[in-house]
Design a protein that fits this description.
Strand content: 5-15%
GO biological process, one term: epigenetic regulation of gene expression
Number of helices: 10
Largest sheet: 8 strands, parallel
Protein name: Histone deacetylase
Helix content: 40-55%
CATH superfamily: Histone deacetylase domain
Strand order of the largest sheet: 2-1-3-8-7-4-5-6
Oligomer: single chain
InterPro entries: HDAC_classIV (IPR044150), His_deacetylse_dom (IPR023801)
Structural class: alpha/beta
Keywords: Hydrolase
Organism: Arthrospiribacter ruber
Number of strands: 8
CATH architecture: 3-Layer(aba) Sandwich
Length: about 300
């Protein structure tokens, strides 16, 4: 069964006009239920993650300041969010959603988090709509509990997974692969184990060729026993922040490449959603929904 993390806390209200589309966290499960891709039984409700697993990845001092709402104005500005207790609780629930989804993936082959993909959170700070890094926390949880020995992070969000790269820069148990817009945020890129910077306006055919040429050899090179997939849909040509040129079908084929590779090689995978900022919310929902449709088609 496809297990999916979702919580009302994912839909924390933001000031009117804020460019981060919180409404997608309600609309996506509604769409999946309406069309029959999933039922209520597919969803589970995350809770607050035990802070020992957060501190297993993030700096104690940073997390204390975050919990006590003591970040400086500059630190808050870099996150892109107005800081509040509700926002921090939202983030902690997202962390548990990804950890629990990874545990379900060990049983079912794949599991998803409606939110997550907070790859801009560093060990000691937040950036780019990310306060804590669910990819890193999940990987470290699996390693600490001997549930995985070698993890491959496949980050196909349009923005480089800079926080994840920093966190695992000295840990060879986690291989970080980021394929992103070369000229997009962040302007200063961290060094992943494999970075592929893409030119603006790259289309479906060239994008998919580059992806296939790189991800297939990675399985042999890395020999992972778990994959974490950041499936941001800000690669779409319609995305306000993305600058790439993928169609909805191209984005879907991107997901198919990753999911079929994991399924064929019997490597458990946890998928988190990442970014998506198209002007029309329907494009964002359709692109995200395709990931879930493919998971059902390929795995179940």
């Amino acid at each position: 069964m496809l297990k999916i993390a979702w919580s009302p806390k994912y839909c924390h209200p933001l000031p009117e006009g804020h460019r981060f589309p919180m409404e997608k966290y309600n609309l996506l499960p509604e769409q999946l239920l309406y069309e029959g891709t999933v039922t209520e039984d597919n969803f589970f409700s995350p809770v607050s993650l035990d802070e020992k697993w957060i501190l297993n990845t993030h700096d104690d001092g940073y997390y204390l300041k975050l919990r006590q709402l003591q970040l400086s104005k500059s630190e808050i500005r870099k996150t892109g969010f107005p800081l509040s207790h509700a926002l921090v609780e939202r983030e902690v629930h997202i962390m548990h959603g990804s950890v629990q989804a990874a545990i379900f993936a060990l049983e079912y082959g794949i599991a998803m988090n409606i939110a997550g993909g907070t790859h801009h959170a560093f060990s000691d700070r937040g950036e780019g709509f990310c306060l804590l890094n669910d990819i890193a926390i999940t990987a470290n949880y699996l390693l600490a509990n001997n549930l995985a020995k070698k993890i491959l992070v496949v980050d196909l969000d349009v923005h480089q997974g800079n926080g994840t790269a920093e966190i695992f820069s000295k840990d060879d148990r986690v291989f970080t692969f980021s394929m992103h817009g070369a000229a997009n945020y962040p302007m200063h890129k961290e060094q992943s184990d494999l970075d592929i910077g893409l030119p603006d306006k790259i289309g479906d055919e060239e994008y998919l060729k580059i992806l296939r040429n790189n991800i297939d050899p990675l399985l042999e090179l890395v020999a992972p026993d778990f994959i974490i997939y950041q499936s941001g849909v800000d690669v779409l040509a319609s995305d306000k922040l993305g600058r790439l040129g993928l169609s909805l079908q191209g984005c879907k084929e991107r997901d198919r490449v990753v999911l079929e590779l994991a399924r064929h090689n019997e490597i458990p995978m946890m998928c988190c959603m990442g970014g998506g900022y198209s002007e029309r919310i329907s494009y964002i929902i359709e692109a995200h929904a395709n990931t879930y449709r493919l998971a059902q088609e390929i795995y179940f």
